[in-house]
């Protein structure tokens, strides 16, 4: 993808990302003892259970088209998690599996405004894998679908222009808006670390080069 290439939205891509992640994550969750769901994650104040409760509730809001004022705000997320405080872990996982299965077609029909939900759910799955100590937390089969989604979303948001030469991809990728007075930043490293940068996740133990932009500038999730 060159610096001038247009990115045409593939409406099926978010659903493919969710289904791919579902097939990897749900068996992992069902194999873990309940005490593992109390492990802390990279999300401040949230355990694995909190992350999964948030993910399941967010996807079910998409499936059921429940978008009241302030939806997906920190306060709304906290309320959704609190509503599931007395649920068994198995019920939380069941809801998540259902949401990851059913949300794709709804997101596809939404014209792009909900595509970030799919990316966010995939990143949260990485948060869970990292809390469990699983390798490749922000990699796996879903990465091939998350990268083009993130590239298009970052361009639509006119985010910081970035040219990424990825160790594990043959072709460079362009992220962010069209360069103007500011030349595009450059990233050299692996794709999973780039995901950490764009999602504001911990960078301990990573190795990469970033020129022309600060780490915090790349964070799309706030």
Q: Which characteristics define this entry?
A:
alpha+beta, 222 residues, 8 helices, 7% strand
Number of helices: 8
Structural class call reads alpha+beta
Q: Give the strand content.
A: 5-15%
Tell me how many strands there are.
Answer: 4
> For the largest beta sheet, what order do the strands appear in spatially?
2-1-3-4
Mean pLDDT: 94
C-alpha-based Rg, rounded: 17 Å
Order of helices and strands: HHHHHHEEEHEH
Helix content: 40-55%
Stretches with pLDDT under 50, minimum 5 residues: none
What form results from the Cα inertia axes? globular
Cα(first) to Cα(last) distance is: 26 Å
Biggest sheet record? 4 strands, mixed
Describe the protein's architecture and organization.
50% of the residues lie in helices and 7% in strands. It is α+β, with helices and mostly antiparallel strands and 222 residues long. A 4-stranded mixed beta sheet has the order 2-1-3-4. Helix 2 crosses helix 4 and helix 2 (48-64) packs antiparallel against helix 5.
Secondary structure topology:
Layout: H1 13-31, H2 48-64, H3 74-83, H4 89-109, H5 115-132, H6 143-156, E1 162-166, E2 173-175, E3 185-189, H7 191-199, E4 209-211, H8 215-218
Parallel strand pairs: 1-3
Antiparallel strand pairs: 1-2, 3-4
Please provide a brief summary of the model:
The chain is α+β, with helices and mostly antiparallel strands and 222 residues long. Helix content is 50%, strand content 7%. A 4-stranded mixed β-sheet has the order 2-1-3-4.
